[in-house]
TrEMBL record:
The lineage of its organism: Bacteria, Bacillati, Bacillota, Bacilli, Bacillales. It catalyses: L-aspartate + O2 = iminosuccinate + H2O2. Residues 20-390 form the FAD-dependent oxidoreductase 2 FAD-binding domain. Belongs to the FAD-dependent oxidoreductase 2 family. NadB subfamily. The keyword Membrane does not apply. Pathway: Cofactor biosynthesis; NAD(+) biosynthesis; iminoaspartate from L-aspartate (oxidase route): step 1/1. It holds the Pfam family FAD_binding_2. The active site is at residue 288. This is L-aspartate oxidase. It comes from Paenibacillus spiritus. It is found in: Cytoplasm. InterPro entries: FAD-dep_OxRdtase_2_FAD-bd, FAD/NAD-bd_sf, Fum_R/Succ_DH_flav-like_C_sf, Fum_Rdtase/Succ_DH_flav-like_C, NadB, Succ_DH/fumarate_Rdtase_cat_sf. One of its GO terms (cellular component) is cytoplasm.
């Protein structure tokens, strides 16, 4: 069993720092929530790298919100429910689609400069959306622009203290409530950061896979930390693989935004044949899981490691204007997307599951909240609708702060929590080797297509790494690996338990969706294992 704490400690021997609100992570969820909370609270924001390093920074497509006159929250609701394959919480989605437009307006007030055409906000369309409702910035650099604007607000805020290069090891709970976090400083020393509310905004877990669009920091820390503290974790089997990541020698798995297909790009196999008509009526704009599996099928049929994305029929001026980041990145590797087909393949992209929260973003542990990709609000179901993630972070960030304002203060509290497992040995194998081995297991055994055989083999291989929890972990890299292993085990165990195919979870041995037996969630609770939860 995974222990409650990764390291031995005694809070009575550690320095204590007190604040009102602790925010862990610096993507759109952390930045926006910090700004809202700091209107009347002292905030400490912790990031294990730097303020600008997060998944949000690399988000290209945009943010989904009902802006156009011919659109409506009801249309957005139906699109989200369809993509979510029967596991969305209708109530959570209604919150998103109705409160999203005001959230966008708040981003604008905070300095985000979305693209405009003829003086009005420019909107594009992405897969499985019935209307043009995706706002974007600098063409295809939406995430970077949002992070830029919010970071500038935080840099000038006297109630927000940013701790770069600080690693949150574990959460401290007492009497069933979250009281703060055990934190490791850059110099290796530790402290107890105490707060009235703790908000996990630590992002996703793409780095569990060898091929991912996510940055190095996306290692599933928040889910693992919350799981060890006893929070309910939900829907971890649903990992979204983006269909189109650059697959080119010497280049990273750079995201080729779904908006490229939204603007008319088509998929071709290595023989130049357009193939999506054989898989879905929506062609290239089918839900991501369908497009991703179609690409894998074509790669296997043609014995290739990629397919092509072709937007060469559009004018060079339009492509360069609409996708300057993608154009500039590809040209740096000798690919001119205005004249060349882009080699692409699926890569791990987004984690639909996470820490189960209510409609106010609060977890099963009082005073512990989760916002953004680390959370499971019920919005995304089994398959996230494109560009709903940034909207979700804004909408639920606002709700979290409203809830925090109703909490009574904890005052000065010195919990007696401590841990002495007698750990003495350092890990025997270099962490870089362990990490690579884990990533290979996840790609091969727990990837886009799964079966009892592959999942069982993957689980056995992952469990061989369990002795790490009995080792003395001191470096951020060691602690990070322990979190990666925790998340990998959660994903594999829930994927093995769900004996059907739904959304982003595809079982070759249970290829059909089964609403009679499986229209329900799987909760994972550290002391109970897997618990089934029916979808209302």
């Amino acid at each position: 069993m995974i222990p409650q704490y990764l390291v031995d400690f005694d809070l009575r021997e550690l320095p204590v720092v007190r604040t009102d609100c602790i925010i862990i992570g610096s993507g759109i969820a952390g930045l926006f929530t910090a700004i809202r909370a700091a209107e009347d609270r002292k905030v400490v924001m912790l990031t294990k790298k730097s303020l600008m390093e997060s998944n949000t920074r690399y988000a290209q497509g945009g943010i989904a919100a009902v802006i156009a006159e011919d659109d409506s929250p009801e249309f957005h609701l139906q699109d989200t429910l369809m993509a979510g394959a029967g596991l969305c919480s209708r109530e959570a989605v209604e919150v998103l689609v109705n409160e999203g437009p005001e959230g966008v307006q708040e981003l604008i007030r905070l300095g985000t400069k979305f693209d405009k055409e003829d003086g009005v906000l420019a909107l594009t369309q992405e897969g499985a959306h019935s209307h043009r409702r995706i706002l974007h910035a600098n063409g295809d650099a939406t995430g970077y622009e949002i992070v830029r604007a919010l970071s500038e607000q935080i840099a000038n805020h006297d109630r927000i203290e940013v701790w770069d290069d600080h690693y949150v090891i574990d959460l401290i709970t007492e009497d069933g409530e979250c009281r703060g976090a055990l934190v490791q400083r850059p110099n290796g020393s530790r402290l107890f950061l105490q707060g009235d509310a703790t908000i996990l905004c630590s992002g996703g877990a793409g780095q569990l896979y060898r091929y991912t669009t996510n940055p190095e920091v996306a290692t599933g820390d928040g889910v693992a930390i919350a799981y060890r503290a006893g929070a309910h974790i939900r829907d971890m089997e649903f990992i979204q693989f983006h269909p189109t990541a650059l697959s080119y020698p010497g280049a990273p798995r750079f995201l080729i935004s779904e908006a490229v297909r939204g603007e008319g790009a088509v998929l071709r196999n290595i023989h130049g044949e357009r193939f999506m008509e054989r898989y879905h009526e929506l062609l290239e704009l089918a839900p991501r899981d369908i497009v991703a599996r179609a690409i894998i099928d074509e790669m296997e049929a043609t014995k290739s490691t990629f397919v092509y994305l072709d937007i060469t029929h559009e004018s060079a001026e339009k492509v360069k204007h609409r996708f300057p980041t993608i154009y500039g990145t590809c040209i740096g590797y000798g690919l001119d997307i205005t004249t060349d087909w882009i080699p692409v393949a699926p890569a791990a992209h987004y984690m639909m599951g996470g820490i189960k929260t209510d409609l106010n973003g609060e977890s099963s542990i009082p005073r512990l909240f989760a916002c953004g990709e680390v959370s499971s609000t019920g919005v995304h179901g089994a398959n996230r609708l494109a560009s709903n993630s940034l909207s979700e972070a804004i909408v639920y960030g606002r709700r979290i702060v409203d809830r925090i304002r109703s909490l009574p203060g904890l005052g000065e509290v010195l919990p007696s929590a401590g841990c002495d497992e007698g750990r003495s040995e350092h890990p025997s194998q270099a962490v870089v080797e362990r990490r690579l081995k884990l990533q290979k297991v996840m790609v091969r055994q727990v990837g886009l297509r799964r079966s009892e055989e592959t999942l069982t083999k993957g689980l056995e291989e992952l469990k061989r790494q369990l002795p790490i929890f009995a080792s003395r972990l001191t470096t951020p890299e060691d602690l990070e690996f322990a979190n990666m292993l925790t998340c990998s085990l959660l994903i594999t165990e829930s994927a093995l338990a769900r004996q059907e195919s739904r959304g982003a979870h595809y079982r070759e041995d249970f290829a059909q969706r089964d609403d009679v037996c499986w229209r329900k969630h799987l909760l994972q609770i550290r002391e109970l294992g897997i618990v089934e939860e029916n979808e209302a």
